[in-house]
Write a structure and sequence with these properties.
alpha+beta, two-stranded antiparallel ribbon, 6 strands, globular
Length: 106
């Protein structure tokens, strides 16, 4: 099995255990961190993580590189670090899905 997953729900915030290998989660930062905002040139402010994901997806698409969940999150981490952001984006999934293609729909 993979890592355990929990789903918050109910009026008291109870957590129900989910089965292993139920999904893929990309998060902008670790739980102890704060996700930063970015202000790209000629654009409205939005999350630094979202901006880095969009930029990297365009770059990898132009290069003809297959985008996997793993190379996406590693590339985004590198991009944010080089841009001076201290947040650490995370990929949470089983090894089965780490190197699976990142799904992009037009």
């Amino acid at each position: 099995g993979g890592a355990s997953a929990y789903l918050a729900g109910g009026p008291k915030g109870n957590y129900a255990r989910l089965d292993d290998d139920v999904g893929i989660l990309l998060s902008g930062c670790m739980a102890r961190e704060t996700a930063a905002d970015a202000m790209p040139a000629n654009s409205e402010p939005h999350g630094a993580f979202s901006n880095a994901v969009n930029t990297l997806l365009r770059q990898l698409h132009e290069e003809g590189t297959t985008v996997t969940n793993r190379n996406l999150i590693l590339g985004v981490r590198d991009s944010l670090s080089k841009s001076g952001f201290s947040q650490s984006p995370c990929l949470e999934c089983s090894e089965r899905w780490a190197d699976a293609a990142f799904v992009v729909r037009d």
